[in-house]
Design a protein that fits this description.
The chain is mostly helical and 189 residues long. The chain has 3 helices and no strands.
Length: 189
């Protein structure tokens, strides 16, 4: 009833295995990049907390207002440098992730394409075989409908047309009426 067999064909299994390997390697690569990004964010937060703590100590230990302003401005430049370094790390991580994803794709694309072609060829071959079987079945059905009174007993076909027996019966009735002396017989079939 289904157009494809219930068992998994070897081409399907091979293609699924190739796709699974490709997706697993892509997932590992993306997870590694995400993990590096999280580590970088944790490092940034730790550094910023340390800087904030040092700045807070200097502000609290300042006796005069001029010391307070100089302590705040002294911590501004290192914080800006650290943010700039963070942006560079993010750009490097993004570039590395892109290179890794391209490498994984290049590594798997040939095998995945080959298995996809093999699967498509097998599906096309199965479809053409099933189409041929269906066409033969339709032709046999059409042949049986065109000659419904074929006998299958001895292999010899003896066609009997329904219209021919009616015309023979009508011809016998007409000849019986003309002669008048012969009794009319009803033909039974």
């Amino acid at each position: 009833m289904y157009p494809f067999p219930q068992t998994i064909a070897p081409a399907v299994r091979t293609h699924i295995d190739a796709q699974t390997a490709f997706l697993n390697d892509m997932s590992k690569s993306m997870f590694s990049s995400f993990q590096q990004m999280c580590d970088l964010n944790i490092q940034l937060v730790q550094t910023m907390l340390e800087e904030t703590t040092l700045a807070g100590r200097q502000v609290l230990s300042a006796d005069r207002q001029s010391e307070l302003l100089s302590a705040a401005t002294a911590r501004t430049q290192p914080a800006a440098d650290k943010l700039r370094a963070y942006q560079q790390h993010i750009a490097r991580l993004a570039a590395d992730a892109q290179v890794e994803l391209a490498r994984v794709t290049e590594q798997h694309v040939q095998n995945t394409s080959r298995t996809a072609r093999a699967l498509a060829d097998e599906v096309a071959r199965d479809a053409s075989e099933q189409t041929e079987r269906g066409l033969r079945a339709q032709q046999e059905t059409a042949r049986q409908f065109s000659d419904p009174f074929m006998r299958a007993g001895d292999g010899a076909a003896q066609p009997q047309s329904a219209g021919g027996s009616q015309s023979t019966q009508m011809g016998q009735q007409a000849s019986g009426q003309q002669q008048g002396s012969q009794p009319q017989r009803a033909a039974t079939h």
